[in-house]
Amino acid sequence: ETPLPNxxxxxFKPAIDEAMAEGVAGWPGVQVRVVCADDLQVMxxxxxxxxxITNIVRNAAKATTSRPAGSDAGLVVAEARLSGGQIALTIxxxxxxxxxxxxAKLFQPFSRAGSDGGTGLGLAIARELARGMGGxxxxxxxxxxxSTFSLTLRAG
Length: 156
Known about the structure:
By secondary structure, this protein is α+β, with helices and mostly antiparallel strands.
């Protein structure tokens, strides 16, 4: 079982930078870009936030490596926007997109969207952690040119 979140105001950009670095650590050819105001604060649990972002970025980095030979380098972009009292963090990649056959069950435990031998729990747990912090995680778009996920949380 997931422990209850310990919500507190966190500097968002350093948290994103750290999780992005860990998420692409196994894929040295994948580039990352973070767009986030230095003073943006989010109300979150440090560990839960890190797990969510790292999971999405790891999946994105893995997806970009399945691009055809000779393609541009893999790229994962995280962009945070403040709107009212909510922060939306979008994480986009230039991979092949999520297969249409798995989109409907993407956040269900054991759905295993990829063929990497994973358990199929990563996105289900990430969504559960986001919702536990009063936010949400969803797939915004998926196309042959990449996918975009959105994590929404309260501003801190």
